[in-house]
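Predict structure. Chain length: 576.
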Amino acid sequence: MKSIEDIVKTPWYSSYDNIKKHIDYPNTSLYNIILNHSINHPDVLAYIYFNTTCTYKEFIRRIDRVSKAFSELGVKKGDKVSICLPNVPEALISFYALNKIGAVANMIHPLSSEMQIKNYCNMAEAEILVILDASYNKFKKQLPFTNIKKTVIVSVGTSMDLLTKAGYWFKKGRKFERIKRRDNVIFWYDFIKLGKSSIADIKSTTTAKDPAVILYSGGTTGKPKGILHNNLSLHAAALSEIEVLQKHWGEKIPIGQKALVIMPVFHGYGLGSSVHVTLTACGTCILIPNLDPRKFDKVILKYKPNALIGIPSLFETLVNSKEKFDFSFLVFVVSAGDVLPIDLEIRINKFLKKHGSKVNIAPAYGLTECLSGILVSPAKGDKLGSVGIPCPDTYVKIVNPDTCEEVPYGTIGEICAHTPMAMTEYINEPEETKNTKRLHDDGLEWVHSGDLAYMDEDGFVFFEQRLKRMIISSGYNIAPQYIEKVIDSHPDVHRSIVVGIPHKYKIEVAKAFIVLKKDVKNPNKAKKEIRELCKQNIEEYAQPYEFQYCDSLPISLIGKVDYRELVKQDLERNEN
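Prediction complete.
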């Protein structure tokens, strides 16, 4: 019987530097990883949150208590529970508590619009929602249009120490509308009490193939998709990345190494490559729920993390810092979520060396359909401008988008991956799933990324551009087609097109070009209504940064709106 290596070319193996080609993955729950650490390393810190800390012994105790609380609300194996939280301890505790039960965590961006939170809850058929207080206030009027029977309220300040909590309440918390206690609303403290008083005896029977999480992305058509991953996906993401990571330390990552978790837990990189990788390695997650880019350098210096994953725009602010820092504690630095320009990569490496770190930044590439990073730069032999080589057990090839035939080295084509990190499916979207996960002539199933790149003869991949019209702003995927659908729903709009335009810090932002109908009587009123329509139906981070109203839109030779011409015109306008 042929092995995959007999079918797929693997030139990257020459750069593995004693990295294992294959890994044995546990046929068990993610929860069991934490449980084992609580037994073998009970006093190691699982996370740091502002001025509070939590050991693995205490972490598992909190997870067990919350699993009982969920059980008291009727959650059982296979159920979906929506978690709409930033990087707060309650997000991690809830995720692993649900995993112990065998339930599926439906991860939602807390800055999603009220309509999208409703849609995401309905897509997953969730009956329980754990949500940030600030997000609940804007979403509550949509509750009657969901299947949600119980809502658990969490504040960013819930797990803060008293002094930090008081400061947070004075600056931000007191500005939120007060939430009233109702039969269908329960606050986190009362939710915990349910677990304390419960006599339920929950045994984790979850296996690697059982579903674990739903994450959201634009899919291949730009329409928001719920991406289902099983436990194996997260095991593979963690253990394969650890295999690569430990070469930066030497041979093994020391217990208790700290990672700055700034990538959000509802994001593939945040959950897979930041949180679960760190916890699998028995490390410490430094949880940052909302990072001010201007204070990035001070946050790093305060916590002194050994590992750091961030988006290019954050590193842009870091290299512009004029402060004198000693960053010698940094062992592993990754750029993910967006393309890292070569000039910025060079500047970051110079900055790190200047501030005492021996490490070079490691560009990586991933997609939510494969959870997180399938490509990462190795400790040795990295190539400038590359997004790295495939992780263990991940096979990547570059194909002609039209024929799926593999192209020669150095030729641009679509990135395809065969990996244990691959999604199970897009929930409720069999055709979209079939279009993304395709069986090739080699007999293997490949995930089509919708991204263009080329591979050199050493197996290093160089990203070129997106095949699909996805806008990536500060590491978040923004589907222009969805924004256009929202704008076009206004009765006074004839046509709209949304494109990505350059931004100093966010790399790209969305800009909407809109043509109103000729018979509109009150254009100013229509423009205000369009902005409000976007606010109600589009996530905060995906809101159009600019609205430009035109008499017409440029048309290509084949009769389609030429969005590339709009980008070109916008650049020319800003240069003049």
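Summary: Residues 471-575 form a domain with the GMP Synthetase; Chain A, domain 3 fold (CATH 3.30.300.30).
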